[in-house]
Amino acid sequence: MSTYDKQHKVGPDYQRQGFVVIDGFLSEQERANLLAVVNEFHQQWLDKNAEFYAERAINSAYLTASTFLNDVQRQVLFNFIGSQRVMTLAYGLLGKQPAFMNTQLFFDPANPNQKNYWHRDAQYHLSLDEQREALKGSQVLHFRFALVDEPGLEVIPASHINWDTVEELDVRMGNNGKAPHHDLPNQYRVPLKAGDLMIFSANLIHRGIYGMDRRALDVLFCDPEPDILKYANPDCLPRGKQLAAIDDPTAFTVTQNCLDTAK
């Protein structure tokens, strides 16, 4: 099946199970260019966050900000995020106004024995009742680009629209003798090869699998809702010549307009 055909299956597959994988989405040149920028960001981030990394860190964020990358390196990321192929998928899943929320880089912990953990992204800022309600609300999507071969994710399929079972909730929240790293009956593992793209809902119950010196670049798109975009960092957005150089800057301009309106 061609990449074109796979992209046209994304919507139904995603709606049904909360995730979808497009094998070999990145060309070798795209992958190499992104990996070079990501590795530069990662090294500088490690230098500044050595203690946090040694304690527990498994990801960093705000790659497109001006903190660690120069304008040329940031433009590589901006151009990729605003490329026609990426934006076509964002339109297909979010409609005419997909908003850019953030970027994240997922890597292995310093401690090889550190446990991974089941979670929904929203559990870190919403109550349980609010998390349940969020399954019917606005969407946040991870576009995960595997820059090297990696173990990938484990997910609970369709949990982006279905609330936790008793066991899933106990494990996810660490209640009743359970811990977030315990296995779950319906878990499904999704390994990724270098160049693959996995799109998944932030509401999906999931956990990362550590190992293989992973380098997973996540681009987060969302519905243009102020309650979601209040978490966006204005320094991560392109401006002026940076914006003009992007093939399709819609996701960035939607976010900027939303932030400007909220002032």
What does this structure look like?
GO terms for molecular function: 2-oxoglutarate-dependent dioxygenase activity. Keywords: Dioxygenase, Oxidoreductase. By secondary structure, this protein is an alpha+beta fold. It has one domain: Jelly Rolls, CATH 2.60.120.620. The protein is 37% helix and 18% strand. It contains 11 helices and 9 strands. The radius of gyration is 18 Å and the shape is globular.
Q: Strand arrangement, largest sheet?
A: 1-7-4-9-3-2
Structural class: alpha+beta
Low-pLDDT runs: 1-5
Name given to the CATH homologous superfamily: q2cbj1_9rhob like domain
For this structure, the quaternary state is single chain
Question: Which H/E pattern describes the elements?
Answer: HHEHHEHHEHEEHEEEEHHH
Helical residue percent band:
25-40%
Bin the strand percentage: 15-25%
Radius of gyration: 18 Å
The rough form would be described as globular
CATH fold-level topology:
Jelly Rolls
Q: If classified by CATH, what would the architecture be?
A: Sandwich
